[in-house]
Each structure stands twice: as C-alpha cells, then as structure tokens.
Automatic annotation (TrEMBL):
Pfam families: Acetyltransf_10
Stored Gene3D superfamilies: 3.40.630.30
Annotated ranges, domain N-acetyltransferase: 14-189
Protein name, per record: Acetyltransferase (GNAT) family protein
Cross-referenced InterPro entries: Acyl_CoA_acyltransferase, GNAT_dom
Single annotated GO MF: acyltransferase activity, transferring groups other than amino-acyl groups
Presence of keyword Transferase: yes
Signal peptide: none
Domain of life: Bacteria
Keyword terms of this UniProt record: Transferase
Amino acid sequence: MGLFPRLGPWFVGRWHRAYQESADAVALSAVRRDGDGGEEVVGFLIGATDRAAFLRELVTRHRNALLVRGALALALRPGVLARFARTRIRPYLRRLRNAERSSTQEQGARIADLAAIVIVPPLRGSGAGSALVAEFLRRCAAAGASAAELVTASGSSGAAGFYARTGWMDMGGLVTRDGVQVQRFRRLTAETAED
C-alpha cells in the first residue's frame, strides 16, 4: 500500500534492510518447517520499536541509499514520478528538514510503529500473523515503547478485521494522498504481557 511498493523491489529491499540494521526496529520472519528439516519462509513483519528514533535514523544513516534507489525507480516509472511530484515531494522535503532539526531535541513517549506484515495467502488464519505481532509487541515493550500503532487499508483489501479481533483499538479512518481509505489502530504494549 502506498508509494514504496510502486518503486519496485530494489527500493523496497533497501527500505526493509534499514529495519534489519536498526537498533530501533525489528524484522521478523515466520518459518514453516517440514518433516525433513527443511524450512520455508511463510511471512514477515517489519516495524519500529521507537518510530521517532527510527525516522531520525532513516534520514541520517539510510537517506542517501534510499534517495538514490528512489530517484532511479522514479526515473524508470514516469507515472509514479508524476504522482510523486504532485502529491508527495513537498511533504517529504518538509519531513526531511524537520527530522534533521528534531534529531537533537528531547523526545516524548516511545511509540512503536508496525510498518508491514505479510503472510502467504494459503497460511492466513493459521496463527502465523498473530505470532509475529505478539513477538513484535513483546519486543516493543522490552524496548520501552508504551504503545504501538499501525495503518491498514479499510475494507476487504486490508487487515482491519484481524487487528480488531486481536486486541487493537480502532482509532478511526482517513484517506491517504493516493485516495485510499485506511484505518488507524493502536495497542498498548503492556497488554501483551497480560495475554
């Protein structure tokens, strides 16, 4: 959902790697083992245990690599470039400036951000997604995050029902710059320890 997937796998792979390399983020995999000792990745989750700290890291440590890959992807995709110029360039530049300025300012409560979760379609409903989310919330609580937040597409294309069933509080909807209706969810990380 959103701009990043339209930039292609070369950009998305680098964006995912930022989560793998960060002390303020997690990248988890769900693996299915067969009887012969083989393993197959059936899902993954990426998220930040501290959204503000991870954003600062993105715009300092990973900015150049993401900018180069993003620029090349936009150059190869003129339609995506036109939409980016129309809907996102000003807000992105503003966020870059603000993130750099706020890097030395005092930060408030740690809020985690579940950025993406994917489970292969045949195994949806198997518990793999719930296990990934539970582990993510456990790590967020251990890192000192008081709550975790996420955004998912509304309706049948999103996972709103999954989050509502698994204890996330619906914080209402909004429409993205791409015209997609999304739902925002929040969950206190301390609830994980009680489950």
